[in-house]
Design a protein that fits this description.
Layout: H1 10-22, H2 30-40, H3 44-55, H4 65-91, H5 93-96, H6 101-133, H7 139-159, H8 162-183, H9 191-207, H10 211-227, H11 237-268
Helix pairs in contact: 1-2, 2-3, 3-4, 4-6, 4-7, 6-7, 7-8, 7-9, 8-9, 9-10, 9-11, 10-11
Amino acid sequence: CHGNRKRVHPFLSVYCRFVLTSSPVMSDGKFITRAKISEHAERYEDMSDYMIQHMNQEETSVADTDNRNLLSVAFKNVVGAKRSSWRILSALKDQHKGKESEHVLADYTEKVVAELKNVCNTVLNLLEDIIKKVPSENTDALVFYQKMKGDYYRYLAEVAKDTERDEVLEKSSAAYESAKTESSKLPPTHPIRLGLALNFSVFYYEIKNEPQKACELAKEAFDDAIAELDKLQEDSYKDSTLIMQLLRDNLTLWTADAQGDAEDDDDNN
């Protein structure tokens, strides 16, 4: 939702660059202000830098909804662009195999992977400090950050190999499991609990290649939410129902894939 801002007039981007760089002295409130301006200008690397500085201030409430959402939006856009680049480059591998350009593509892919890893590790290091500051009674914030931790280890798992992949897989799974345990304190219709179920199920389907477990997680979350739909809070109705739709869409797709695989197996017997 934050990432789908309409593109702004070029003049605003120029103005934002001036505002963001003109003053070397910055009061505490300016970090968050500049992060928001960076978001409007679609300068997400600037936004992420300002959010790191903001979240590292002692007086910053890391559990605050706006703070955590802005942090998430900033890095989601930065890492999202690099993940997209990696996917495109990976898809070109067969086209360049055996050609002179094969090594060029491989080198450039490694460059993108290094950048992606750097972003993920920056987020994960920041999250280690943030999670320690979250009050134990603030369940939604704890689930939010543990889920985010699982997400960024999952992004590392997408590009990691061999023992490194095994390590980040284990850390991603542990973070998601911790978030899932904590999320049981939230209503089944809570958007953070639903978002966790969505991402955790994707982890099982796309990263661990366990479609049955993915379907079980997604179905459980969807059914639990449906059962308490009448208790859904008005302020979270749009977010919750959107995630429920995504869960249902994934279930439909994954179930169809499983049936197709079963039919292929029957044909081969």
